[in-house]
Amino acid sequence: MNPQSESHEPLREAVRTRQERRARWQAEGERSLGRNLAMIGALGWTIVAPTLIGIFVGRWLDRLFGMGIFWTLGLLTAGLALGCSFAWKRMHSE
User: What is the CA radius of gyration of the chain?
Assistant: First the structure.
C-alpha cells in the first residue's frame, strides 16, 4: 500500500461504520422512547458507580491513614474519569 491510502484508512472505517448504522436503522427503525430512556439510565449508572466506589474507598483510606481528603479527591477523580471512559466506549458501540 502507498502512504496516501494508509492515511485514508480511518476515513474508510468511519464511512463503513456509518453505513452499517444507517442500514441497521433502516432495518430496525427508530428506537423506542423506553429504550432510549433505559440507555440514558444505564449510561448514568456507568458514570456514577465508579465515582461512588472511588469516594467510598477514598473516605476509608483517609480515615485509615488520617490524611484529610487526599485519597477521597484522588479516587473521586479517578472514578469519574473511569466512568466517563466506560460511558464513552458504550455510546460508540451502540
Answer: 20
Alpha-carbon dihedral angle through residues 47, 52, 57, 60, given to the nearest 10 degrees: 160
Q: pTM above the 0.85 mark?
A: no
Report the alpha-carbon distance of residue 28 to residue 40 in Å, rounded: 20
The letter for the amino acid at 32 is S
| Neighbour count for residue 76 (Cβ, 10 Å) | 21
Rounded CA separation 24/8 (Å): 24
The predicted-structure confidence for 23-76, as pLDDT tens digits, reads as follows 888 888 887 889 889 989 999 999 999 999 999 999 999 999 999 999 999 999
Per the CB < 8 A criterion, the answer to whether 61 and 67 are in contact is: yes
